[in-house]
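Changelog note: in this version the structure field was regenerated for every chain. One regenerated record is shown below for reference.
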Amino acid sequence: MKPEFELLAAKGLTHPCCVPSRQRAALLHVPANPHERIVRGSTSEMIKLDGGAFLMGTNSTEGFPNDGEGPVREITLDPFYIDAAPVTNAQFAEFARSSGYRTEAEQFGWSFVFQGHIPEQRRATLVNDTVLVAPWWCKVLGAAWQHPEGPDSNVTAREQYPVAHVSWNDAAEFARWAGKRLPTEAEWEFAARGGLEQNRFPWGDDLTPGGRHVCNIWQGEFPMLDLAEDGYAGTSPVKAFPANAYGLYSVSGNTWEWCADWFSPDFHLMGTRDNPVGPASGPTRAMRGGSYLCHASYCNRYRVAARTQNTPDSATTNIGFRCVRDVAS
């Protein structure tokens, strides 16, 4: 394994299908307080939620013990707006053109790509650039948001797909530019549940209601065989599957979504129940929602209570984000 990257699983922090990580590097400029109230941005293509009380987390034991999904606790939130869908390649392209911003993957010169999405002839040259305990993750030179599988790929036909290869720092910069912010974990889960109380998924408890695939996750044998029974062997358009009852698309599977909070498995045990945020600092940021690489045999984090983490400068082909905005008083 190359010295400039590592896997959080090697430290017992997460599960290797999910999120390979860079070693921490110098942070780019980000807002000093990602939780500060933001009321500047346009609310076009956002959903207004009234907030209020809901039951966050789960008492189920089907998740990973170190993730800190439980216990169930009642949380109260102020009203907020949230993007109906993850930020798309088209939206990120507008940001990049307007601001001249270069993502951390572009500055590092590489990003993590799932091996199954790398052309076979090029894959053979990457044998020494894989993650030791998860060799399906490859360090690919030239991989970035506009070249998701490497320099010979592009997003020309994927304008409405979620932008990927964005670090937490990149996502925070986009949010600042748009006059928005990243959601807290509590806001994300409240919105993802769509008003359902303690269900496993945004639509209920059955992963495939009526035998239908309603989210983009892995089918088959991970990591060797993706049957793509849901129609997609990689990311899908952000509105490829039905929205939840609040009108949010793609909150389970497709790409992980960065949240504002620093990650902690137990901070919530003693924290506030009113508009909670994570700890004041930490080595990793929280992520929610799972991705197209999740499979019940390996990583079932496409459940709404599930959570994981990654270092703020890490970027992969299965991490994206959406934004929120506060309601003006």
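Spot check on this record: The first helix runs from residue 89 to 99. DSSP finds five helices and 16 strands in the chain.
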